[in-house]
Write a structure and sequence with these properties.
Blueprint lengths: L2 H4 L8 H11 L1 E7 L3 H12 L4 E5 L14 E2 L11 H17 L4 E10 L6 H8 L11 H14 L10 E4 H7 L9 E10 L2 H15 L4 E4 L1 E5 L5 E5 L5 E11 L5 H7 L10 E8 L2 H7 L3 E5 L5 E7 L2 E5 L3 E2 L10 H14 L10 E9 L16 E2 L2 E2 L9 E3 L1 E2 L5 H15 L23 H15 L3 H11 L3 H10 L5 E2 L2 E5 H10 L5 H8 L10 H15 L3 H19 L5
Parallel strand pairs: 1-2, 1-10, 2-7, 4-12, 10-19
Antiparallel strand pairs: 3-6, 4-6, 5-6, 8-9, 9-10, 11-14, 11-15, 11-16, 12-13, 13-14, 17-20, 18-19, 21-22
Helix pairs in contact: 3-8, 3-12, 13-14, 14-15, 15-16, 16-18, 18-19
Length: 576
């Protein structure tokens, strides 16, 4: 493992250079199609074992479903209802491992459950446990208590957070006065949140490249079939292309799995996804009530909703509606009203209205095709169907179906072991205790973090406040970014986003494979999701990106128009 280089590694070479190197090599161990969390996690695992891998993505890293989660790393409390105990055991373990391996982005999240009855829901829960297709409603105190005890039991491995607790109605309302007085009690347990999911995926890719210089990762490329069982990878931004001959293809395209299998000449019907929509609100009064906690609650129809503080905003979600087209999915007005009304009923003393919303988003969960009437009962577990080689397709295709953000490492390990066996290779490294990106050598206490920040401020001459911002953005990789910022001439804060600067953007543009303005605004930074993009800021980012990446005036104008259109169409933000 090249641990020291991994955090600082850039994406080597230009697109054409990387493609030429892959083509010259001829045979490739594994081609991974799709750079969401499952694809990136598998890439990191396989390259750590010394395999030659190519990871390709038609858009940008983490641009699809992996960029539209509830931003939770959780054990799956509700999976206990459907008897998916193995999934809960794996999820709680992986949550605990991520808290240790990615502490710069994965943080503990105390979670409060309002309870509205003492005994309701037991009969419905038992029916669901034994296969009923209707979800329990009105989960009472007894049911919640049993669930939290089981959750503590399954989360015991590598435990890093406290066990659950309960509080009476009176104590709960003293602590959270805005909560509806209809409760009879509350329960509190601990899960985790991921603050920068898109960047965590990027770090998995960079760590994989550092471990295997012969491997490559390409974004903004198209997959095509070629003659003789080969595959062609073509840049969407230019003329660069490469023909590769993989021994194995892994389809990690999420909601696009069936589409990719069709390109590979292996038609399938594996995916039957559901849509999850979220809203972010500028609501200081709500944040004061939450006090850093998440509220995990039942809406009137029995669906599970949540609300918690996310980077200074209140994030509320999510809907769970069957949907098929990941390219057009968006948060619809009725979903916005559903979430707002759920919050009004939960916290009747607070005001909730559309004028508080600064951003909305939606994504397709790549769940297995299912005839379940209630989307919430479709399993969140994963499966890996294999399409064996046939005439004209000499490689097997492994499709990564289902799964969830939290379990990506464990799932990658399972699939990697399957592929290693097929290639007659053996595992060299376990990823179980392997730090990710800026989580490497992360100071463990608040005092240690302040010492680290003060030390880097002295080294670079940057203000401690600025180092603290970089530390929040990149973890310990801030050391590399800070050195770049300190050497950047006339570094200045970005307009309307003073915690980012021109020197920082220069580092990102030069070292993080940015292919579009959207990559920069939506994924390399949190400017979009926190609702801070303004017309002035978008134009400033485009100007700097154009100068650094060599865009002409027409390209820059096109990039600005594309970002503005995406904000308006998919995220409820109109910059006009």
């Amino acid at each position: 493992m090249n641990a020291n280089a991994a955090g600082a590694a850039a994406f080597p070479g230009g697109m054409g250079e990387r493609m030429a190197a892959m083509e010259a090599r001829g045979t490739l161990d594994v081609l991974i199609v799709g750079a969401g969390v499952n694809g990136a996690g598998l890439f990191r695992d396989l390259t750590a074992q010394g395999l030659d891998c190519l990871l390709i993505e038609k858009n940008d890293y983490a641009a699809g479903t992996s960029a539209a989660p509830s931003r939770l790393i959780h054990g799956g409390l509700k999976y206990l209802e459907t008897g998916e105990f193995r999934l809960v055991a794996q999820s709680t373990l992986e949550r605990n491992l991520l808290l240790a391996n990615a502490p710069h982005y994965v943080k503990p999240l105390p979670t409060l459950i309002p309870i509205f009855s003492w005994t309701k829901g037991i009969g419905a829960a038992l029916r669901t446990l034994f296969g009923s297709k209707s979800a329990p409603r009105s989960r009472g105190a007894l049911l919640v208590k049993i669930g939290l005890m089981l959750y503590d039991f399954y989360g015991a491995r590598h435990r890093v957070m406290p066990r659950h607790s309960t509080a009476s109605r009176a104590a709960s309302l003293r602590d959270l006065p805005a909560l509806t007085p209809d409760i009879v009690a509350t329960g509190t347990y601990y899960d985790a949140t991921v603050t920068h999911p898109e960047r965590l995926i990027l770090e998995l890719v960079r760590d994989g490249l550092a471990d295997s210089p012969r491997s490559a990762a390409l974004n903004h490329v198209r997959l095509e079939r070629a003659d003789g069982g080969a595959l062609m990878v073509r840049s969407l931004a230019g003329e660069a292309a490469a023909t590769v001959r993989p021994k194995i293809v892994v389809n990690a395209a999420g909601p696009w799995i069936d589409e990719v299998n069709a390109i590979l000449g292996a038609p399938s019907r594996m995916i039957g996804g559901t849509k999850g929509s979220h809203i972010l609100l500028d609501h200081p009064d709500l944040l004061k009530e939450l006090k850093g906690r998440m509220i995990y609650f039942e809406a009137d129809d029995g669906r599970i909703c949540l609300v918690f503080e996310y980077l200074g905003r209140a994030l509320a979600g999510s809907t769970d509606i069957k949907a098929a087209n990941p390219d057009t999915v968006r948060c619809e007005p009725d979903e916005v009203e559903y979430l707002l009304e759920s919050l009004r009923r939960l916290l009747p003393k607070l005001r909730f209205s559309r004028d508080q919303i600064v951003y909305v988003y939606s994504g397709i969960r790549p769940l297995p095709a299912s005839d379940a009437k209630d989307p919430g009962l479709i399993t969140r577990d994963h499966a890996t169907p294999v399409l064996e080689p046939v005439a004209g397709r000499p490689y097997p295709v492994y499709s990564l179906v289902g799964g969830k953000w939290t379990t990506f490492r464990g799932y990658a390990e399972e699939v990697a072991d399957m592929l290693l066996k097929r290639l007659s290779a053996s595992r060299k490294v376990s990823t179980r205790d392997l730090a990710i990106g800026g989580g490497r050598d992360y100071p463990k206490t608040e005092a240690a973090r302040q010492t680290w920040i003060a030390g880097l401020a002295r080294e670079t001459g940057l203000a401690e406040k600025r180092i603290g911002e970089l530390f929040a953005h990149y973890g310990t990789t801030a050391r590399v970014v800070a050195a770049h910022v300190a050497a950047f001439p006339a570094d200045a804060p970005l307009p309307d986003a003073a915690d980012y600067s021109t020197g920082e953007m220069d580092y990102v543009l030069r070292h993080e494979q940015v292919g579009s303005l959207a990559d920069l605004a939506f994924r390399r930074t949190t400017l979009a999701v926190t609702g801070r993009l303004t017309a002035r800021l978008v134009e400033a980012l485009a100007l700097q990106a154009g100068e650094t990446l060599g865009w002409d005036a027409a390209r820059s104008a096109s990039e600005i128009a594309a970002v503005r259109e995406r904000l308006k169409t998919f995220h409820g933000v109109d910059l006009t």
